[in-house]
Specification:
The protein starts with a strand and ends with a strand. The protein is an alpha/beta fold. Helix 1 crosses helix 11 (328-346), helix 2 (60-67) packs across helix 3 (82-92) and helix 3 runs parallel beside helix 4 (103-110). Helices cover 33% and strands 28% of the residues. It is built from 13 helices and 18 strands. The longest helix has 19 residues, at 328-346. The strands form 3 sheets. Strands 7, 8, 9, 10, 11, 12, 15, 16 and 18 form a 9-stranded mixed sheet that branches. A 7-stranded parallel sheet has the order 3-2-1-4-5-6-17, with helices on both faces. A two-stranded antiparallel sheet has the order 13-14. A hairpin with a 2-residue loop joins strand 13 (265-267) and strand 14 (270-272).
Length: 385
């Protein structure tokens, strides 16, 4: 397998590292605008099975040239590149997977289904943690039941040692976090898609120590197109973000005061964007290079089996890897992306065309792959509704 990783940031670097642990992968190329920086955990691979190649995703001819001859392209670029990168990968005859996160872009990618099928390639958007891992777990639970009624998902990337006032540290793009806090979320309510205000729907959940009680609230992005797929078939489907208690109240106040707006304002004769000012001010306080993070996930599917009410629960708590310096968010997101690319190349995903993970990834194969990477999903059964 020859695999191109587009984007040499945190998630792309983690995906490349994971691919290099797989003996089936002959070579990995990281395509990025910068080739002078490489993550410490990748340095020993450079010049052997890892190549750094200058790629500007806005330059389509050079990007297409980088894709040619590759078995797969895994894309860790910002979501707004995903449609064009999909189109180019299909032209190059390479399988394609990305981190997704934007439902509108995924729907655009679906328009390329026939073209991908004709070229004999698999395209899978939404292959990270959420969307991605949670969608596959939701599908696994649905498949186990005779009749599913509700799916609820909770995911959080958190510091192991929270510090007030937000009890949060940056585990991926701050711009992306604020998008999720300001864009309506999508749920299924009584079988129909419904938009809900981000940072609402506040509830508390209990997890094993040392986590204890966490709060959850609606955010955008994590559920992707899954509610549309199950419209009319499931009564309820929800996705919420997990944080330490008190976070949502503070962030909602900041948002409602206009401090996360992208509309420019004039201050003392200068035009500034409140959101960019906010990011500039808080990033140094929330960016902790030495801060250890964790990822917590829970997916519950409820319905009936053999005429009896039953629930299926999947839980994950994953931690910063002290040996490599790879964060829990990088592991859960970048490793999931890499695993999908390997599954495409190895024939473990047989369908060609554009499919979301819940439509085409076999949960048992995916969960086995995560387990080999030390990402252990715990499954349990719940009585009643």
């Amino acid at each position: 397998m020859r695999i191109l990783v587009l984007g040499g940031g945190a998630q792309g670097s983690a995906a490349a590292y994971d691919l290099l642990q797989d003996g089936q992968v002959e070579s990995v190329v990281i395509g990025d605008q910068r080739t002078d920086q490489v993550a410490p955990f990748l340095r020993n691979f450079v010049g052997d099975r890892l190549t750094l190649k200058k790629v500007d995703a806005s330059d389509e001819p050079s990007t297409l040239a980088a894709m040619e001859g590759m078995d797969a392209v895994v894309c860790a670029l910002p979501y707004y590149f995903n449609y064009d990168m999909t189109r180019l990968a299909i032209e190059a005859g390479a399988h394609f997977a990305d981190l997704g996160g934007n439902t509108e872009i995924v729907e655009q990618q679906r328009t390329l289904d026939d073209l991908a099928g004709e070229k004999g390639v698999s395209v899978i958007p939404d292959c990270g943690l959420a969307p991605g891992m949670v969608n596959i777990l939701a599908q696994a639970g649905i498949d186990e039941l005779d009749e599913a009624e509700s799916v609820r998902m909770w995911v959080g990337g958190l510091p192991q040692d929270p510090e007030p006032p937000l009890n949060y540290q940056i585990v991926y793009s701050m711009e992306g976090v604020l998008d999720y806090y300001t864009t309506p979320g999508l749920v299924l309510h009584e079988g129909e898609p419904l938009e809900v205000e981000a940072l609402t729907g506040l509830e508390e959940l209990s997890f094993p120590e040392p986590l204890g009680r966490l709060e959850a609230f609606y955010t955008a992005g994590g559920i992707s197109t899954l509610p549309y797929r199950y419209q009319g078939d499931l009564r309820t489907m929800e996705y919420k973000t997990l944080r330490y208690p008190g976070h949502a109240t503070i962030m909602k106040a900041i948002r409602d005061l206009g401090l996360l707006s992208n509309e420019p304002v004039r201050v003392d004769g200068a035009r500034i964007t409140p959101r960019q000012f906010f990011i500039d001010r808080v990033t140094p306080r929330l960016h902790r290079p030495d801060g250890r993070d964790l990822v917590v996930l829970r997916v519950e599917v409820r319905g009936s089996r053999a005429g009896r009410p039953v629930g299926i629960r999947y839980d994950l708590v994953d931690y910063y890897d002290e040996a490599t310096g790879i964060t829990a968010m990088m592991r859960a997101t970048g490793f999931s992306l890499a695993l999908t690319g390997v599954m495409q190349c190895s024939g473990q995903i047989r369908e060609k065309g554009v499919r979301t993970p819940d439509e085409t990834v076999r949960p048992s194969v995916y969960l086995d792959g995560l387990a080999r990477r030390g990402i252990q999903i715990q499954r349990s059964e719940l009585d009643g509704r």
